[in-house]
């Protein structure tokens, strides 16, 4: 239910990068890691909880067992208890660390709840699904990491948050392209709304936007040339290729 493999290698590290940038103490770094371990897991569990009926129709998800609730392996009551635990721990820790940081953690949780919750379901509102993903996995977690670690908000920090927002939105769009055929007729997504070909165009535009944002960020920091080019290579090749490879496999 926690779907570790979906986030431990990607979105989980975004708040920790924010903490490192403002020279967080080891204690604060550890606490931020705990907070976003639970908060990120919450976003995936609540998505599983509200996606039960859709996931039962999704052959690949049933095969890979990404939603045990859809397969009847766990009960709804058990899922609700798990959600309560995942919600309680990060909020209690965050409120004792920093009030502004607590607000960003709360915003992350609200965004992930509204993204999946019945009657709101921003994930089925094309355009808002992409934007919400950027906020809940990129922008809010990064700013939470900065402020929980004792850092202050300024324009360059906000710009870095926007970069992570763009990357998180790019990741969701690529995921929607991968799931395009399975989602068609079962759910509404941004990719379904604009079509297969336009989704590729938007994916490229998002990658270009991330490069422009990064170059703007570089105007405010002294970055060693090797680090600058390493990040550019990651943004141009490593990050997109991770998704392009998945997309190629289903064409």
Can you offer a commentary on this structure?
The chain is an all-alpha fold and 251 residues long. It has 12 helices and no strands. The chain has one domain: Orthogonal Bundle (Tetracycline Repressor, domain 2). 74% of the residues lie in helices and 0% in strands. Helix 1 packs antiparallel against helix 2. The longest helix is centred in the last third of the chain and has 26 residues, at 225-250. The protein is globular and about 50 Å long.
In short:
74% of the residues lie in helices and 0% in strands. With 251 residues, the chain is mainly α.
Characteristic terms for this protein:
globular; 12 helices; Tetracycline Repressor, domain 2; about 0% strand
Low-pLDDT residue intervals, each spanning 5 or more residues: none
Question: What is the structural class?
Answer: mainly alpha
> Overall 3D geometry?
globular
CATH class: Mainly Alpha
Question: What is the CATH topology descriptor?
Answer: Tetracycline Repressor, domain 2
Order of helices and strands: HHHHHHHHHHHH
Major pleated sheet = none
